[in-house]
Amino acid sequence: MEKLTGCFLLVLLSSVLAEDKFIRDGGTLELSPNVSRSINSIMWKLKGMTVNWERGDTLNYPDTFEGRTTLDKSTGRLEITKMTPADSGNYSVYLNGAMEPKSYTVKVIKEVPQPVVELNPLPCSAESKSCTLLCEGKSDEAVALAEAEPVTYSWKMGDGEWMDGKKSRIITNDKEKKSVETFSCRMKNPISEKQSDAIPNPFSKTKASAHSGVAGSVSVDLLVVVLAAVFGAGF
Questions:
Q1: Are 216 and 224 in contact (CB under 8 A)?
Q2: Distance (Å, rounded) from C-alpha 22 to C-alpha 179?
Q3: Are 94 and 45 in contact, with CB atoms under 8 Å apart?
């Protein structure tokens, strides 16, 4: 029982001391262990690869880190530039042969794509009982949403505040929603944040009256043209 309790505490301690680090694709990783003693040897480990140094020896690292790796021999600080998704993983460090309790879970991700709000079903009109708003990435952008995870979503109605939500939200054709003029969505991940252009509310009274005004204006203008043509032909 004591052995099981000890194992549980060890797992719990490891999870508490693991720090998540999200790095932009192409960006720079910086890891700094907490050092309060003289360092004679340093070894950083990732996926079986090592960056290591011993006093009186040169710095050794895999070919994949060639030309983009810097190690501060007095502090153990590791810097790797031009990070790629292949560099993602768990980084741990050994100082003077002893593993430090803190490790780093590194994930290299891309910025979120430019979001757009799409309506489903596609004709969604004032006669519809409800519609679904989808927060999607622009189709002409090459960034796959999976490469930007973890992504969170939020929504804004008109000039209101941003509210946390999901990728989709259902709007119903009721009195409350008809008073809202526009909807916008926002995508966010640990390294970036972008928001969509606002789209008109298909149930909005303002939108309906604006359309009526435009239609009325067009009808009057057309009547003037027709009358001018008729009277002009008579002279």
A1: no
A2: 40
A3: yes
Half-sphere exposure of 229 (CA within 13 A, CB side): 6
Identity of the residue numbered 162: W
What's the alpha-carbon Rg for the chain, to the nearest Å?
30
* Residue 65 contacts residue 17 (beta carbons within 8 Å): no
Do 56 and 46 form a contact (C-beta atoms < 8 A)? no
First to last CA, the chain: 110
Is the model's pLDDT at 43 over the cut of 50?
yes
Question: What angle (nearest 5°) sits at the alpha carbon of residue 107, between those of residues 106 and 111?
Answer: 140
φ, ψ of residue 6 in degrees (nearest 5): -65, -40
Highest mean pLDDT among 137-141, 164-168, 211-215: 164-168
Is 227's pLDDT higher than 60? no
What's the rounded mean pLDDT across residues 41-66?
91
pLDDT of residue 65: 92
* pTM as predicted: 0.73
Rounded Cα distance between 111 and 126, Å, is 36
